Amino acid sequence: MMTKNQALSLIPQWSEAAKPLRIVLIVQLLWAVGAIMWNVVGVQRIEQNLQPLGPTASLTAAIALGVFALLLALGLRFSAVLYALLSLIGVPAAGVAIFGAFTHDVSMWPSEVWRYTGVALNSIGVLSSIVAVAGSVAFLLRRHSAKKAAYSAN
After folding, report:
1. Are 120 and 38 in contact (CB under 8 A)?
2. d(Cα 10, Cα 151) in Å, to the nearest integer?
3. DSSP string covering 62-126
């Protein structure tokens, strides 16, 4: 029979990098939830014969964003490298939406408010992803320097 402590020891602990990057992860998750809601509301509006909030609305995109959010959280929990690589995906994903806001016909949004709300939401995605990558790289460089210094000391 396994004791409670033995069972708890099987659960992976947060990586060393996770502690200072948890706030960044929370911001990334808030962006993902906002983008999920944007897509779901857009699909609902299409079903009601109303214009979606922006040029695209997809349940597939909403599900993909949910999977992406889960992978981000797991990535940070297990590895700074995995988290940085996953965060890199967020930059073009949100960046394309921002680019579209300035290149697509403005009639694709119900109003200018929704157009710029989408820009603001996706700016959070781009910025938080950049900070996540930078923070992960900084952590990896510090860890490498510490290991190098420890090796040199021996």
Report:
1. no
2. 30
3. HHHHHHHHHHHHHHHHH-HHHHHHHHHHHHHHHHHHHHHHHHS-GGGSSSHHHHHHHHHHHHHHH
Task: List b or e across 32-60, with b for residues whose CB sees 16 or more CB atoms inside 10 angstroms.
Answer: bebbbebbbebbeeeeeeebbbbbebeee
Given a cut of 90, is residue 16 above it in pLDDT? no
Q: What does the block give as tokens for 76?
A: 């940070």
User: Closest Cα to residue 86, out of 124, 129, 36?
Assistant: 129
The phi and psi torsions of 12 (rounded to 5 degrees) equal -60, 140
> Domain limits of the chain?
17-153
* Range of weakest confidence among 55-59, 71-75, 107-111, 146-150: 146-150
Within 10 angstroms of residue 28's Cβ, the number of other Cβ atoms is 28
Whether 139 shows a pLDDT value over 90: the answer reads no
